[in-house]
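ARCHIVE CARD
Drawer: 12
Card no.: 0347
Subject: one protein chain, sequence and derived structure
Cross-reference: see card 0346
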Amino acid sequence: MATRVYQILAGQLFDPVARKLVPNQVITIDRDAGVILDIRSQAQVRKDEMVSQKVEVTRINLSHLTLSPGLVDVHVHLFLHPYSETTWEDQLTKESLTERTVRATVHARKTLLAGFTTVRDLGTEGAFDADIGLRKCLSGRNPMIPGPRYYCVTRAIISTGSYGPKSSIYPAQEGIDGVKGAEPVDGVDACVREVRKQIGSGADWIKVNLRHLHIDYRCRSRMNDVSSTVSGQSIATFNTQELSAMISTAHARGVKVAAHANTARAIDSLLDLGVDSIEHGAEIYDKHDGDKNLLRKLVKANGTTTWVPTLAAYYTSSLSGASSTKQTWDRCKSTFEEALKSGMENIACGGDTGVFAHGENALELVLMRKLGATWDRVLSWATYGGWKCVRGMEWEGDKGERKIRTLEMAAKGRHVGVATPDVLEENGLERGVPFGVICPGWAADLVGIEGKLDGSVEHFEKALSEGVKFVMKGGAIYKRDGQECAGI
């Protein structure tokens, strides 16, 4: 049986490692394995090159587009939809699990068609472990439904009393009708037990909530009747011993940990403990006191900890007009701007998508650009940076580099007709190949974008919001000429 390949002519190709555009490249893709076999200039490709090798070649001319690796949103909630439509509490307590799961499938499709071929879902928010089943439906070469490569955490871990929804009739009750929004634990033993349980249920990551983004569910929110100042305080919800126990337990089992944190004190502790990603972090820097020590510490954690600033969540929340959300957005902006000045590179793009509409994931990238990041840094963070953030621990360090080199050599050997170990099939497309770079042996996740990515902020925004004309995930085409395809 002939090997089936695509040969795609790209007008420009974005290299997220070198951070540059390369003109007139031809990308050869194994349609069955779902990986890239070869990249070379158009001038180097001979039309009859592969005929003698019994290869079925389908050529696609995308010379009018810029091809980027598939985009990665490292902070989504597919089981949520915008709070401007329905409040968080009403989604959890008034929408059935069936409805929320159906919505998640719709959100997955919108996300993929927007050019985001991989996401990390940081909690079902009351939909229990439904993300494990959704992951199965999105996986493989012939997935049941269209959507991105899907990393998930099942339930975020929180401390007792720190998260909603909460009953107005029984104030001490955790959750309503069994829906708690996340899993409450207290003490080192319970923390360890919950981490082990979630890893056993299939979680790709562990998510720990140190403080919720929204004012309604802070630790002392029930004090709001008598003091909004007290109820609005940011208070760390886990002590250092509990955090250390969760992080070390997860790492011992080869699983990374994401921490939802905002206060400087909490983030400082997390960096000492080697947490893998910090979500939000608006209070890393305070422009009023000008203390940059924590920013410098985070910069030095490059290679260990990734910062996911979730600008889009803060920005869309500020549109409500409330003074508190506007102040938080201002704090977030100044922190990000100072991070850029510090030369921080351990950043990944994740908007907390679900707080705002799925399919508009690129808002995070646009806001980064508007706040002063260059187009190439942003696009690199949204591709290669996404891979470095969400990949499993088995891809880290020298061992991970050796795995990547083996896959690259196997792909190149296959392209020239050399017999190579069938490592590509053995590993599988979901967790067995790297993504985020257009390189032999890496996943054939590609986005074709019309417009000028390297132009002004306005050009960048238009290209990402209106210019996604081609989407491929794992060698299957889901969008072509701006129209949805059935994964051909």
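Annotation on reverse: Residues 323-341 form the longest helix (19 residues). The chain is about 35% helix and 20% strand.
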